[in-house]
Design a protein that fits this description.
By secondary structure, this protein is mainly β. The protein is built from no helices and ten strands. It starts with a strand and ends with a strand.
Amino acid sequence: VQVVESGGGLVQPGGSLRLSCAASGFTFSAYAMDWFRQAPGKERELVASITPDGYTTNYANSVAGRFTISRDNAKNTVYLQMNSLKPEDTAVYYCKRRNSQNWGQGTQVTVSS
């Protein structure tokens, strides 16, 4: 099981970013996928989840209405579209396959003016 996150960067408050997570080593279309984040000095938290077929998604209250998780099973990739970003969204973002202990290296998102 391997996941590689990308797409992070520095963005101003109110801006947008789209994160990608390329997965390999397992049958991607058979597993739910999750996005987590960890801010400095805080515990890692679950941000968004998506079912294997992509039809059902769930979000943390802090990002609902601003973030959208999606997936392309043909490309073995899960995405996180982040809009209306706030400074408190600053964190390292990770994706993970459900029921796996393998984490990627994460991608840094910094929201600052």
